[in-house]
Amino acid sequence: MILDARRAALLVAANTALAPFAIDAYLPAMPALAEAVGESIHHTELSISLFLLGLPSGN
Length: 59
Known about the structure:
Blueprint: H1 5-26, H2 30-37, H3 41-58
Helix pairs in contact: 2-3
Protein name: Bicyclomycin/multidrug efflux system
Organism: Halomonas elongata
């Protein structure tokens, strides 16, 4: 599948626009997520750091 410039720009814009929503949904659920996977809240917070470090590579 060949991406034209317009479609590629749309995909980049969607990725950029949806990333803040992912963080906003994830942050309130962190205590429940830490309990569900049996890890400390500190390890769960590390996943946010990794997400934020990986975000620029997707853009």
